[in-house]
Amino acid sequence: MSDYSKQKVYLTDINREPNTGGRKQARIELRLLKEACSLKIEPDVLPKEENVAPDTNLFCVTAYCTADNYDLKNLYKYLKKNSLCSKVSMYFGECLYTRMSFGGEGDEGLDCFFYEYGVVVCWGMDANQESMIVKLVSKHEENPYEASDIEVESFKYGITENPFIMNDIIYLNSENHFSKMVVSIAIAQSVKLDYFENLVDNTIEDVKEFPEEMEREGKVSKNRREILKMIGKLHRLRFNLNLGSNILDEPEFVWDYPAFSPLYETCKRYLDIKHRADLLNRRCDVINGILEILSENTNRSNVEKFEVVLIMIVLGNVLLIILLMALMYYIRLKW
C-alpha cells in the first residue's frame, strides 16, 4: 500500500495509530482498487476521467471525530478573536469554515471545516498544525471522546485541470474553499460513521456469546437490568445516527447550491456512505432482536420464579391452617 493511504497521524494528545480495525482497513484497501471518479466542480465544466495520477504537489487532508458535538456558535466567536484565523465564516449553522495562518510560507491553502456533529477536517496542514487545531476545538466540545476513541481518516489532495478522486487522493481544479467544504462534508460523514461502526463492533463483542450461552445453558449470565441497559445504549446509538444529528441528511449548502450536488454525491459514493449507514442500521436491528429475545426470556424467568414463590406462600398458608385446625381439634379432645 502506498504511503498516502496510511492512516497514521502523529499527534501528542491522540494515539500514535488511530483506530483502523479490520473492517475499516479493508474498506480503505477496497477504495484503492476503485476506478477514478470524476468530480464535477463547476456546473459548466464536464471533467474527464483520468486513469493516471497527474504530476502535482500533494498535501494532507485529515478528518478527526473527537466529540458527539461541537458548540459552533461559541467556537465561531472564539475563532473570530483568534489571531491565527484570517477568515471565519458560518454556513447554515452546520459548518464553520476558517482559513488558518501559522506565519509560515504556503499558508494560503490551510483551511479548516468544523461540523456540528463533532468532526473537524483540516486541509494542507502538517501533523503539528493539526494537533493545534484539535486542541483548539477541544474547548468547545460536547461529550468529548477519550483519545483511544477518536477516529481519524487521512487523504491527500492536489490541484489539476480535470478534478477526480482515486486511491484516496482528491484532485481539485482550484483551492476554492467551497469545493473543499463540499468534499469535507462527505469525509466528515465517513469518519463519524467510523465512530458509530466501532461502537456497534463493541456491542457485538458484548452479545456474541449470548446465543451460544442460551443454547448451552438455557439462560444467560446477564440479568434483565444489564440487558435493558445494553438495549438503551443501542437505541441511543441509532438515535444519534438517524435522528440526533444530520450526518445522513443532504447538507443545507448543497441543497441551496445544487451545482455542488454532483461533487458531493461522487464523494459520498466513493466513501460508501449510504451503503455503510444501511449496513449499520441492519446490524443494529439484528443486535436489538437478540437483546429483545433475551430480555423477554429473562422477564419470563423472573415471572416463573415469582410464581414458584407465590405457590410456596400459598402452600405454607394451607399447611399453617391445617396445623391450626389440628391443634384446635386436639384441644377440644382434651377438654
TrEMBL record:
Domain (DUF155) ranges: 112-281
InterPro entries: DUF155, RMD1/Sad1-interacting
Pfam families, A to Z: DUF155
UniProt name for this protein: DUF155 domain-containing protein
The keyword Transcription regulation belongs to this UniProt entry's keyword annotation: no
Organism: Ordospora colligata OC4
Family per similarity comment: Belongs to the RMD1/sif2 family.
Keywords recorded for this protein, A-Z: Membrane, Transmembrane, Transmembrane helix
Transmembrane segments: 308-331
Domain of life: Eukaryota
